[in-house]
Amino acid sequence: MNSKEQKTSGEMYFTANPNSEHRYQNFDFELLNQVLHFKTDSGVFSKSTVDFGTRTMLDALSKTTIIDGKILDLGSGYGPVGIAIAKAFQRSVDMVDVNERALELAKINAVQNHVEQLTHIFKSDIYENITDKYALILTNPPIRAGKHVVTDMLQQAKNYLLPGGKLIAVLQKKQGAPSAQKNMHAVFGNIKVIHKNKGYYILESVYEPNTDI
Known about the structure:
Largest sheet: 7 strands, mixed
Distance between the termini: 30 Å
Shape: globular
CATH class: Alpha Beta
Number of helices: 6
Strand content: 25-35%
Structural class: alpha/beta
Number of domains: 1
Strand order of the largest sheet: 7-6-5-8-9-11-10
Helix content: 25-40%
Order of helices and strands: HEEEEHEHEHEEHEHEE
């Protein structure tokens, strides 16, 4: 995410209850070889198109493998990541965000893309309401929310992964990718850059419970 994309109508999209005037938009976008239909609004992240970081992260999935199990879209916004994965891979996806306006849009978008049976969309401040274990956690963390938020999103992921499960995150090199690499390695004992594109790094760590860190 970049700083231009993070402000929405004078407020941050990671606000729980955006109060900006509604300005609905609808657009189609191809992700994971699926043409998807999205409804968006003011007060949500990247309301006019699917942002480049998210697209780069989804493209990188072809460079890795995913064990069996549910997937968590952490900071789902209006739903492009979780919906694309549910549609393309027919996998069960939990989608969480703190932004209630974004969550309502995600529910609408899940229905109009016919993945409402594969997605569970609910509010969670980072992992606050998460109780399951996942095969994969994906996140495009909100850099402007503060370093402590990003660090919690990355470092706490280990507690919510199945053995062999993976955390995949996208960050720009100039906005925290080197720091994120250190944080992920400190917790998981491993880190890999599985893809780079225009300054965006796709970082992957694997939860290996028998590995001493």
